[in-house]
């Protein structure tokens, strides 16, 4: 995944620092690294599900957009089916990637299905998009759980925004470990609304928090302390900060920079700041 490099560095840092103390502190540091890595993995995987469903749901943005009920995803990886056609709601949107891994334009491998129900035209205030993966895998990580996205209309700055709730999120790693994840976030559409079928110019701001349990049965909380900025034509988080807490203690602060499309970011741990490259 994109941020693997940071965790190897954090692991080394924690080992060096905590060796000054007791063996118990070393073990605690190892658990903190697992929490940081697995919480980021969960964020990336569930964000991807939203992106995939969002691409399909924009076909149901308004009556003029829905001219057929079968579409191919860009790059030919995945088939979108929308039922029923016409103005009747709710509609069921199915993205089928097939039983074998299919490599998308982002070079990620997917298989299985993402199934969503949409209660109204996607651009309508109050529209609810409920997303459920069905034997869905991203890069051989299985993703399960329900993600509910609600169109809240426009904020005071006349920007569309959405609430995002994930309940009972479960990730099964390629080596059959289990990560649990639940989150409550707000996703504000900063740019690209006028060209809603062109996802490359879409820009969003993410705020909120998450809770989870690592594969080593360690509970954590995940708080966005400065809104995350993401854009369709950039593979990395462009700006924002995140604090990760284990046992109510902040152990890693990640800073993604100032809105340039760059893989450079920093991590602060135990009072020390270290640069890293997002993958």
Number of strands: 15
Which blocks of ≥5 consecutive residues have pLDDT under 50? Answer: 1-30
Q: Alpha-carbon distance between the termini? A: 6 Å
Mean pLDDT across all amino acids? 81
From the alpha carbons, calculate the radius of gyration and give it in angstroms. 19 Å
Give the overall shape: globular
User: How much helix, percentage-wise, in residues?
Assistant: 10-25%
| Alpha-beta content class | alpha+beta
What characterizes the major β-sheet? 15 strands, antiparallel
Series of secondary-structure elements, N-terminal to C-terminal:
HHEEEEEEEEEEEEEEE
Strand composition percent: over 45%
Number of discrete helical segments: 2
Note down, in words, how this protein is organized.
With 279 residues, the protein is of the alpha+beta class. The protein contains two helices and 15 strands. It has a 15-stranded antiparallel sheet that branches. Strand 7 (141-154) and strand 8 form a beta hairpin. Helix 1 packs antiparallel against helix 2 (23-57). The longest helix has 35 residues, at 23-57.
